[in-house]
Amino acid sequence: MPRTELRFPAEWEPQSAVLIAWPHADTDWSARLDGVEDTYIALVAAITRFQSVVVCVADADIEAYARARLSSARVDMDRVRFVEAGYDDTWLRDSGPITLRGPDGFRLLDFRFTGWGGKFEASRDDALVGTLEDLRLFANSERQEIDFALEGGAIDTDGAGTLLTTWTCLHERHPDLDRDTLGERLATWLRQDRVLWLDHGYLEGDDTDAHVDTLARFAAPDAIVYQACDDPDDSHHDELAAMARELAALRTADGRPYRLFPLPWARPVIDEGRRLAASYANFLIINGAVLMPAYGDKADAAAADVLARAFPDREIVPVPCRPLIWQNGSLHCITMQLPAGLLG
Asked: Tell me: domain 3-339, CATH 3.75.10.10, correct?
């Protein structure tokens, strides 16, 4: 289909399903499988209140087990679809398809997934989009392989031609390319009119090199929700304050300041001597709701209030995500939305 007819939809646009992969003993979750399974059950239960979910499973035994766990939790199984596909781990935001919508179908952008710059084995994750295509999961679509390392968590779009990303992550993946070249390539592949770069912002315990979906997210074409830090003694304070100033200086496509929604700061979560990345910015937008990562912290309620103001037409649903941050990600990281009409 012609390039001009393709568009990168925002996450708040209608969805057919959310794609996830079930954790099992051969993934990095094996040491803490019980806790993370509870999070996945809560996630599927929350999603199926509003729409369908597609669950990747490694084999028939894992499907039977996942089906039994979900059924016993009284999940609406009519909205759960299983698909057998190999994967190294369950971070589908980064290994799943980045989908462009056209007037008569979809283009699945299949970027290289390198395990966040070669940190982890990722060959099966890198092949996942092709595997799902071969299984005929998608309808009215074509897959475009792109020999360029890019993860879905590294980018966020307003659905109207503006992309938000971080220089730290993209420069780490492509140190030989300057900002103009990187921005040009992203704009071309993702059908964007402009790319907004953040030079500040990070979270200890994050091994993605500052994915934007842990830091700042569009809530509307004129609104951005971001992770703030109000503790001047915290190691993140100065960097996140600098990011907040960057966001305040950004302008919408028609020249107006963005409406900004700062998220509260959770108390440090220390596990086996290391700090974990507990970001409220890693929320998931679905049809009619925003699923919010909850960490069992007193800031959870305040974060829900901020998201309710940013998304006044959606229900805010907390999902317990403390088990996820042990492996350096959270709610948005383990999911990928599939636009309405994409499922076969």
From this structure: yes
